[in-house]
Specification:
Layout (H helix, E strand, L loop, with lengths): L3 E4 L2 E4 L2 E2 H8 L3 E5 H14 L5 E6 L6 H9 L3 E4 L2 H9 L7 E3 L6 H10 L3 E4 L2 H14 L3 E8 L21 E2 L3 H9 L4 E7 L10 H19 L6 E3 L18 H12 L5 E4 L3 H4 L3 E12 L4 E5 L8 H5 L5 E3 L10 E6 L8 E8 L7 E4 L21 E5 L2 E6 L4 H6 L8
Parallel strand pairs: 4-20, 5-6, 5-13, 6-7, 7-8, 8-9, 9-10, 9-11, 11-12, 12-13, 15-17
Antiparallel strand pairs: 1-2, 2-3, 4-14, 14-15, 14-19, 16-19, 17-18, 20-21
Helix pairs in contact: 2-9, 5-6, 8-9
The structure holds pyridoxal-5'-phosphate.
GO molecular function: diaminopimelate decarboxylase activity; pyridoxal phosphate binding
Family: Belongs to the Orn/Lys/Arg decarboxylase class-II family. LysA subfamily.
Catalytic activity: meso-2,6-diaminopimelate + H(+) = L-lysine + CO2
Length: 421
């Protein structure tokens, strides 16, 4: 569910007409709904009611300061995967003890930043990382709270580029080696083991892979406890998918997911952390773009937009489907015809949709890409020297630019011509 609906023939973001935002900031742009962000956060929070828990929003999905502040004020923790994300979370007002640090390649500098600034836990992904963390903590005279990310060798049945829980993936340590690695960690005086971490992938549309992974985590918890480790916290990762394409087989709800967690892990008495990203931010955002040209080709027509793959890379990168709707509601019963929807970038991959059934559109008309709030703006680039597009946050009848469009001078002046040239 989201808060982008037609009212009297015009698409609204909560109580703001999308066309009014376009008139003020120009196209293309991203627009996010506060109400949808909060609704999704609360669905997860409520799904875990009755268990000691923290929802740590995976901020790589959308890390705008205003989005982080919105969720942090509602009580969210954050899952960060770099020193930059750690700094962003702190700058948005998230206390260190609500931040978990994930990622396979944490550098010594990133580790030090988090140890000095305060951290809830590091989710450690390898033995060399354990050693660096131990040394850094000892040098600073502190103890680093850790979980170890285990790779349960479960097929998440999602796109190969976002599956992370098979043994061939770079993430975590093989679950079969967990006892040995926990023993090593226990012998390092700079570390304090607090639990276990797992994250098997993104855009999962079925609970079965979660269930398989969580059953292995339950078993491992008991084994590690018998080995003398104080396993009191389980970080279960993120990954619950969203319905990009309206079908009859919608992904499971956060409440189903919460019930699964209680069923598989509730008996262990652990504090639970989850790290949803996409399900919180995905349907809370649109990318809005204008038609530049309608072009007739050989056997097919093209809708050429001012938004492109550098602004929203998911279709090019993951063959992702996004619903694309006109900002002015088409008349009921209007004829639709197949058309290719593309951007202006000089790559054939700059194609958002092929042979999509669309009502007639003309130059200047606005369209909105739905479900663009996660892995949209954060993955954008300035390829083809197209400035990063602005981000807008709506709350009720108010809206604000939360990242402005850079000027061409800013874009060009980031480069330096050496004096010897
Ligand atoms: C990407 C990621 C998440 C979030 O995944 P979503 O599919 O956006 O929910 C959570 N945890 C880790 C470690 C991740 O890498």
């Amino acid at each position: 569910m989201d808060h982008f609906l037609y009212r009297d023939g015009a698409l609204y973001a909560e109580d703001v007409a999308v066309a009014d935002i376009a008139a003020e900031v120009g196209t293309p742009f991203y627009v996010y709904s506060t109400a949808t962000l909060l609704r999704h956060f609360h669905l997860f929070d409520e799904a875990l009611e009755g268990m000691d828990h923290l929802v740590c929003y995976a901020m790589k999905a959308n890390s705008n300061q205003a989005v982080l502040r919105t969720l942090a004020q509602a009580g969210a923790g954050m899952d960060v995967v770099s020193g930059g994300e750690y700094r962003r979370a702190r700058a948005a007002g998230v206390p260190g003890d609500r931040i978990v640090f994930s990622g396979v390649g944490k550098t010594e500098e990133e580790i030090r930043t988090a140890l000095q600034g305060g951290i809830r836990q590091f989710n450690v992904e390898s033995e060399p990382e354990l050693a660096v963390l131990n040394a850094s903590a000892r040098a600073l005279g502190v103890t680093a709270p850790i979980t170890i990310r285990v790779n349960p060798d479960v097929d998440a049945k999602t796109h190969a580029k976002i599956a992370t829980g098979k043994s061939e993936n770079k993430f975590g340590i093989p679950i079969a080696r967990a006892r040995e690695v926990y023993r090593m960690a226990a012998d390092m005086p700079g570390l304090e083991i607090v639990g276990i971490d797992v994250h098997i992938g993104s855009q999962l549309t079925d609970l079965a892979p979660f269930e398989a992974a969580y059953r292995k985590v339950a078993e491992l918890t008991e084994t590690l406890r018998a080995d003398g480790h104080d396993i009191r916290r389980l970080d279960l990762g993120g990954g619950l998918g969203i319905p990009y394409e309206r079908t009859n087989a919608d992904p499971p709800l956060p409440s189903d997911y919460g019930a699964l967690i209680k069923r598989t892990l509730g008996h262990l008495g652990c504090e639970i952390e989850i790290e949803p990203g996409r399900l919180i931010a995905g349907n809370a955002g649109l990318m809005v773009s204008a038609v530049i040209y309608v072009k007739s080709g050989e056997g097919r027509d093209f809708l050429i937009l001012d938004g492109a793959m550098n602004d929203l890379i998911r279709p090019a990168m993951y063959d992702a489907y996004h619903d694309i709707v006109p900002v002015t509601e088409p008349a009921a019963g209007i004829d639709r015809a197949p058309i290719d929807i593309v951007g202006p970038v000089c790559e054939s991959g700059d194609t958002f949709a092929k042979q999509r059934m669309m009502p007639p559109l003309a130059a200047g008309d606005l369209v909105a890409f739905r479900s663009a709030g996660a892995y949209g703006a954060v993955m954008s680039s300035e390829y083809n020297s197209r400035p990063l597009i602005p981000e807008i946050l709506v709350k009720g009848d108010q809206f604000a630019v939360i990242r402005r469009r850079p000027t061409f001078d800013e874009l060009i002046n980031r480069d330096t011509i050496p004096e010897w040239l």
